[in-house]
Amino acid sequence: MTEHLLKILVVGDGNVGKSSFVDRYVKGQFNKTYKMTVGVDFSVKLLQWSDKEKVRLQLWDIAGQERFISMTRIYYRGALGCVVMFDVTSSSSFLSCRHWKQDLDSKAMLHNGDSIPCILLANKCDLAERVVSADSIDRFSKANGFVTWMETSVKENKNIGEAMRRLVQEILCVQSSLDSFQSGPQDTVYPHLDSECNSRGEGCC
User: Fold this and answer.
1) Around Cβ 4, how many Cβ atoms within 10 Å?
2) DSSP assignments along 54-81, one per residue
3) pLDDT digits over 40-80, tens only?
4) Which helix (H) or strand (E) holds 85?
């Protein structure tokens, strides 16, 4: 049994639902009480990815205010993927996604210098007071190099598992293509992923 260890960042402004997203994904729980993250919270989830593969995810939930200080470089080190989240009822949190993505691209890179795979999540889509349109999210996602974007509702458990599966699939595809250019034992990783990698496409909600 092969086990892959993937460090995934969860970033975005404060109060967009990052910690609730991680709790819902890892523990299957939804906590209505808002608790501000200080620095970074760390969670682990083990996935049975295939008959022969397990994926151990390290989820780093980074506090919203961290974008304004220099600590993010330390937190980003070794990350292979990222969730960038905003609140569809907050235009400012959507605008901040550009800064988060720029910060990531400048500090978190793959061995070949490429940006790490990122998925954009439009959270709280269950709320009526939405102010960010799907069209604007779609344009922003494509213009800023996101793998894809999805609408999520942590409260209603909408697209939580689906979003993470899409991101993990992309990370494994990228790692597989990187490994194929390296000599050594790494060359024999992820053979069954070829069809999934080739069938990638833009998708949302």
Assistant:
1) 18
2) EEEEEEEEE-GGGGGSTTHHHHHTT--E
3) 899 999 999 999 999 999 999 998 886 666 678 889 999 99
4) strand 81-87
